[in-house]
Amino acid sequence: MNSNLLVVIAASAIFYGTPLFFAALGGVFTERSGVLNLGVEGMMLIGGVTAAWSSLHVGGSAWFTVLVALCIAMLAGSILASLHAFLCVTLRANQTVAGLSITIFAGAVGLSSYFANIWKAAQDPVTRQVRKLDVLGLADAPILGPLLFNHTILTYLSWVMCAVASWYLFRTKIGLQVRAVGESPQTADAMGISVVKYRYIHTMLGGALAGLGGAFYSLAIVPTWVDGMTKGAGWIAIALVIFGFWRPGLTLLGAYLFGALQSLGTVLKARSFDIPGDVLDALPFVMTIVVLVLVSTRFAHKRIGAPAALGVPYEREER
Amino acid sequence: MRSPVRLERRLTQPRWLNSAIPVFSLMGALVVGAVVLLATGKNPLDVYWRILDRGFLSQRAVTGTLRTATPLAFTGMCAAAAFRLGVINIGGEGQLYIGAVGAALVGLWIGGSAPVGITIIVMVLAGMLFGAMYASIVGVLRSQFNTNEIITSLMMNYVAGIVLNYLIFNSRSYWRDPRSVGFPSGKPLEKRTFWPTYEVFSTSVSFGFLLAIAAAIVLWVVYKRSRLGFEIGIIADSPRAARYVGIRTKWTIVAVTAMSGALAGLGGTSQVGDFAHYLDAKGLQLNNFGYTGIVVAALARLNPLGAILVAVLMGGLTNAGYSLQGPDFPSGLVGTLQGLILFTAVAGEILTKYRLRSNRNAVKAVAV
Q: Which CATH number fits domain A5-318: 1.10.3470, 3.10.450, 1.10.10, 1.10.4030?
């Protein structure tokens, strides 16, 4: 029963979709405050390499080590994000190119690879991993077992975070203020909200979540450090924010859809289906383009959910 | 809390900023890079000296530097051409691969029979055409459906990489050498189709590099003297104004994106014609020429002639990285420095729009 193909694909969609969701949820926070972050890929990679290093070098019990590794990954991601915020918010730079500079700086052949080399983070497989749990001993239950009771702690955390994020953005006063900053910073400023502070905090929160997503790659999926191991996941996450109409719940669904596409190759190859591997490899990237086109045509005029001031630097003097 | 300085809008842009900003950006990147190096236990002066030595000073260094600068000049112009219009084409990487596919196809096909001159011309045209076609997908999606070109062009980089792998490693395609059994590789071109190189002051200059200079001059003339260049300027400044005066904005977006892709395609063509002489699926993907091109474009402030100059600079840095790579000079260092250069170049752009003013005088003025 558990080997039912659909169940296997759905379960691995959740597994592979989890880091995508973390990064995309970070993007939702960042973009809701009006900052476009194209540095996600770089932040994920920095999170991945710092987590791999911590997992190899921090002592203590396995749980403690993993916890520290995840915290360090989030810290590293948010430090990188603070650089992005400095460029975009303080220096009012072009947010697109600023984000690109972060990804090139930290990316596959940049700082993350440099750190991996000088720390020798790639030499050994990570022994202290984020493992799948057997919740309530139900992991082997038919169908629901692999879908609900056999995930890593981070997947369960992501479900909690999805709910909390929705509540935070749409049901709290601070969430309303965040959206105000993203929709109309002038109005928010007039209300006495610090645009600069909100944008910094939410950009850094986004960076922390991207770092956590990267850590999922080096501690759970692979689990060892490989240069450029996220292979474009950060960019897919940016697209997911658009597919999810800047809402956490829809973003989670989108992340699992793309998680399914990413895992399809592994799952089908393991069952010796005769489908060319290259076609499966290209599938997530092609589907990203297709879905993006669909979303942008149908909603071209409404742009449902897009913060009005997204990507526009706020200049108080220019009111 | 008041910050000691504030930003004040510039009313005019002095010309000296055009060269001052890149120079200061570069210096800023070296300073920040030195901090990173110090923090990771390296001597920055030593590292910088060795980069300078291996990139520009030591024997035959400039030959290697120009070799690396050639694709970077093309991808730099590719990014600059699109960025000028406000189209963020970061697909130079994939367009370069596809250009190489087109050039290798033609080179293999007619290289054995057609006259050498014709072969080279047709290779150039094919590389441009393939790059332009691949990029125009991005342009059409952007202009017709308003699809975010940043993400589509980036996704297509990954797709292009997979296409390369398929053609050489995972199929028996026309591009693959049927004799390569253990490790698959591309079918080699006839020796007579190799592009010429010229010896200048004991430095080899490839035909591709001269082609890049020619392309930069053509672009510069287009921007300064042609109607298209004028329209690009208007669309970039104000898309709405461009529509009101009847400029065909959608058409221009497709045309410029295709032109941008053609430039990157030329970079791939030069890789086939000048250096590899076969479709080098692995080598093309190893170097990140497309992404480094974005750094080139930003530091050159989107000027095509500047892109040549910056490409030589970045080429020297990359080339030094190749020859120094080892435990003492880990890979990733060059990419880190290039990222920092882009970072400071982006930060430096603020000085074109604003000037820094001390807040102390402002407070005094209020007090009076």
A: 1.10.3470
Contact B134, B125 (CB under 8 A): no
Contact B332 A110 (CB under 8 A): yes
- Tell me how far the alpha carbon of residue B121 is from its chain's centroid: 22
CATH number for the segment(s) B44-325: 1.10.3470
ipTM of the complex model: 0.89
Closest listed residue to residue A99, CA positions, set A32, A29, A26, A37: A37
Kind and range of the H or E element at A83? helix A62-85
What's the N-to-C CA distance of chain A in angstroms?
A: 63
pLDDT in tens, B155-191: 999 999 999 999 998 888 899 988 877 788 899 998 8
How far CA B361 is from CA of A21, B2, B4, B5, B368, in Å, comes to: 49, 13, 10, 10, 11
Segments of A106-145 assigned E as strands: none
> Dmax over Cα atoms in chain A, in whole Å?
65
CB B130 within 8 A of CB B102: yes
Nearest CA in chain A to B166: A278
Q: Domain-by-domain residue ranges, chain A? A: 5-318
- The residue among B272, B31, B289, B254 whose CA lies nearest residue B142 is B254
Give the integer Cα–Cα distance in Å for B3 and A180: 25
Q: Is any Cβ of chain B less than 8 angstroms from the Cβ of A92?
A: yes
In chain B, residues under CATH classification 1.10.3470 are: 44-325
Whole-prediction pTM: 0.92
Q: What three-state secondary structure class fits B14?
A: coil
Check B347 against A105: CB less than 8 A apart. no
